[in-house]
Each structure stands twice: as structure tokens, then as C-alpha cells.
Amino acid sequence: MQTCCPRRLLCLPAAVLLLLVAASPVLAEGRVQLELVGEARGAALAFQDWARTLANAGIRNVRIRAATGADRVGIDVRGTEASRLYVVTGIIRSRDELLLPPGRFRRGDAARLARWLDDLARLGPEDGREPKSAFGLSASQFEQVLEDASRPVGFATQGAARGTLVDRIGGGLLLPLRIEPGLADSLKTDKLDEELLGLSSGTALAYVLRPMGLCMVPRQLGGSPAYMVVKSRPGLEIWPVGWDSEKPARDVLPALYEFHSVNIQGVPARRALAAIGKILDVPVLIDHNALARHGIDPAKAMVTHPRSRTTYSLVLRKILFQAGLKFEVRLDEADRPFLWISTVKPV
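Now predict its structure.
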């Protein structure tokens, strides 16, 4: 059938008004047909207004007709599993109110309605969809991202430019990584002081990006998950620098609670942290954003611990407190522990 020009809609009878408007192609997962019904008596203007609104919103496969006693709001699933057809029945209540399975729509909600129909074509009815997980991904997609992000960094990172690290780490992932236009230049010159060799790629990328005011966000890209590098902003759900463990730190990093002979006499906190990290064979990552906000430089803050036999858990608490810092044990995506150093004061 040919597309109806909105100007010609006034010439059609209100009892049966068939509309097929041009729009983006229906996605392969399924097709949607929208059946809108209303009382024929005095409904011509309401039918015409809704037909025009839907056409302007790019919604296709719409049939508007007079209601019968059997019409009910709902979704009728037809066709085969390989070629689904979702017939959506809605009721026109007035020139500015339409009832559909998700609820009430006004003419100003046409864009939201178009998105709902697109989701229906791609994903099917909501009661049969896979539950959503973090970042708007399905549970299986999030697991796919988590598994991919657990790939270890296989090269030395200390002293490398952040842009180079993002490219190399991203190149080792199976899912694509995209950098928002205009952000790549900010990563070219600044260099990383820490060694991330062996750390998982997701945690490493989040750490490399964080001091530059950037972050990594998994998103849908062409129906599949991908990584996007974007500017951080309040309220944005971002990939974290490591994850909290459900187990006690003693179980995650037992070496932290073993007894050693310790003697630290007036050395910079950063030097002490590097030495402890080497002894425990665990990465030490510093929250540079928090330290900068409170004016703390671990390369200048001096710390001391008297000679004694104790655990590095106690040592870290004491020497870091002298510098206004604290530590916690986090896990990367492969469940490898690392020490996260932040400030005592809230960020």
C-alpha cells in the first residue's frame, strides 16, 4: 500500500482509517502492527489527530478503526519464532489520550511511544524479556561484558601515555571500544605512574581514565554491548575501579594479615606503599582524584612506623592515617585483589 499524505486523511471515513507511514526499517527481531480503536460517532477529529501525530513521529503499520465489543487493550503475538508479529491494540479515548499496554499516552508522548514500539519489535513483550542488569544491558549481556573485561593486561604500563594504554588495552578486548569525539587528545600526553600488568582490563581502563575526568560505560551498540569512553558527570553509571568483595578482606588477601617484622622511618607514603605492595604481591592503586581534592601528595607526605612484628593490615592503617589516607581491598573483574588508596575525608 502507498503511504497516505496527512493532508488526505480528512477525506477518509472515520470508521476505518488505514495508515502506513514511512519510518526506519523494522528490526529483524519482529514486526509491530498498531491497531487503534475508538467510538465511531463523533471521533473523526480524534482519529485524524492521532493519525497525523503518529505519522509525524515516524510510526508505521497503524490501523485506526471503529471499536467492536471484543476489543481490549493488549498485545497479540502472532507468526513464527523466526518471524514474529506483535499486534498491539490500543483505545483512542480522546484527541489527546491513547490507552496502550504500557499505560496512557498523550500526543506529546509520540516519541516515547515510538521508542516503546521499537523495543517491542526488538525484544518482544516485557513479561517475556530477559531482566535488565546494570548499564541497561540484559543479564546475559552484562555477563558477556564482565567476562571480556576480566582479560588481564599483558604488558607493562608504568610510564606509558594514557591514550596509548587505552588503545592497547581496548585492542585486547573482544567487544569494541569507542572514544567519544574530542576526548582522545586529552589522553595523549599524560602518563601513568602505576604498574597495571596482570590487572584485569576493565579495572585498568577505569583507572587510566579516572584522573582525566573520563570514564568507561558499557552500552548497546547495534544490538550488542560495547564500551564507550565518555566524560564523567554526576549521576552517570560508570564502570568502577574494582569491585567490593562479598568475603572479608582476610579471606580475599590473607597475606595482609600475616605477621612480619616492620620498620618504617620517615619515608614518603608512596614509597612505603610501593614496598608493601611488592611484599604482598598485590597492585596498589591510588585515587588521585580524591587526593588532589584534599591537597594530599603521597610522594611528599612522610610516614613512620616503629620497629615491631605486626601485620601489614595494621601497618597500613597507621601510616596511611598519618597522611590523611585509608585503604580498602577491592577485586578486579577476574577476582584478583588490589589495594585502593583514598582519603580519610569523604570525596
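Confidence is low (pLDDT under 50) at residues 1-28.
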